[in-house]
Amino acid sequence: MKKHYLLIFCLLLVAGSLFSQDVNDLKLRVEKGSIQMATDDGQFKFGIGGRIFMDAAAYFDDKTDLGSGSEIRDARLLFKATVWKNWDAKINIGFDGGNASLKDVFLQYNINTNSFFRAGHFLEPFGIEQTESSKTIKFMNFSSTVEAFRPGRNLGVSYDRWGKNYYWALGLFGSDTDNWSEGDEGFGLTSRFVFAPINEDGTIFHIGISGSYRSTDEDEYLGRGYNKTVKYKSRGATHIERRSFIDAEIEHAKDQFKYGIELITSGGPVVLQAEYIKTKVNIDMPESWGNYNFIEEYKANGYYAQLGWLIKGGNYKYKMKSARLANPKPGSIELLARYNKTNLNDSDSNIMGGEQKDISLGCTWYVNHNVLMKLNFTNVDLDENALNGEENFNMIQTRLQFSF
């Protein structure tokens, strides 16, 4: 019932912020393609939004028979409110696959113009792509490394602070809203620090590090607690084909620790963005395995590097508040290239989840504040430990995206 309580709480909060004022005091306006209502003094604001991703993919397969096709990749409704200027609330509901799910649902207190506390269900502060909306990532899909290792959204609290040249966030998290298992719930502690000594129009240098520790949830059976299985997997830079091509399962996992290193550097209309992530899972070896030569940890890693070139639209810009690139302005055309390598093989623990290397090329047209179009080509190379063994295949994907 946790997710239903969260939804009801935030809906009441938004409703309360509206009806606490005379409706005649609210003025309607459209700002950057979004619908907003606000009082003249800025004490109360209310906004609604949404998005639709319409995708298509053609696969040129190898061993695995891949299913080309199309889908509504994502559809969402967004409600947000500001109460007494310093309190923000947000409800973001997704309808991926025809099922409703909670995305960002939180209450935020803005301490000042450079810091806030947040509580609710939201993305843990780890790396660049993990903290970015699927609406603004460069390619149609997250890099396979980030997809495999990201901590995702969970229930928790966080503190964010930023200045002219730095950003720092720290959060304490439980599990997500879909955790229905019996037994003790695990917890996570995640932090991200970024230093950006150069942050000017067209000239950017950003380096950062993230770390995350998480204990696993327990499953209870016959009055005893058992550690859960930790899974890392990736679909191979696509979503219409739903199978995971690399997949590692670590049974009897006690806890996991991961860290990430990130880089953004830009000169004019050209930008380089890269991330490296490494993870370690500690395994609680059952007593019955005591006579076996067993390694009590699993290690995996991955990285990606991508280039962007605004052939139309000026120079890249940067947002210190989120420690990420700003979205190009309407009318921009962007060319992209990305190399990714994700290795889920660990011979020491004898867990061989597979290795994936992929190269992607892309073009994005930012038609206006509400519409953009993406075209991606990807080549995927898999090793002998992947889903159907060693193979190499290509795909062409396209997206029409509408948001408001």
Question: How would you describe the overall organization of this protein?
Answer:
The chain has helices at residues 2-19, 144-149; strands at residues 27-31, 34-38, 45-60, 69-83, 87-94, 101-112, 115-123, 153-162, 166-173, 188-200, 203-215, 218-221, 224-227, 230-234, 246-250, 253-267, 270-283, 297-312, 318-319, 324-325, 333-346, 351-366, 371-382, 391-403. With 404 residues, the protein is mostly beta strands. It has a single domain (52-72, 130-403), classed as Porin, CATH 2.40.160. The strands form four sheets. A 16-stranded antiparallel barrel has the order 3-4-5-6-7-8-9-10-11-16-17-18-21-22-23-24. The protein is globular, with a radius of gyration of 22 Å. The two termini are 30 Å apart. The relative contact order is 0.14. The model has no long low-confidence stretch (mean pLDDT 89).
User: What is the general shape?
Assistant: globular
Q: Give the radius of gyration.
A: 22 Å
Q: Could you give the order of strands across the largest sheet?
A: 3-4-5-6-7-8-9-10-11-16-17-18-21-22-23-24
Helix tally equals 2
Briefly note the CATH topology name. Porin
What is the H/E order?
HEEEEEEEHEEEEEEEEEEEEEEEEE
| CATH architecture field | Beta Barrel
Number of strands: 24
- For CATH, the homologous superfamily is named as Porin
State the CATH class: Mainly Beta
End-to-end separation in angstroms reads 30 Å
Content-based structural category:
mainly beta
Strand content: over 45%
Mean pLDDT over the full residue set: 89
What helical percentage do the residues reach? under 10%
Main sheet attributes: strand count, strand direction, barrel closure: 16 strands, antiparallel, barrel
Task: Determine the oligomeric state from the structure.
Answer: single chain
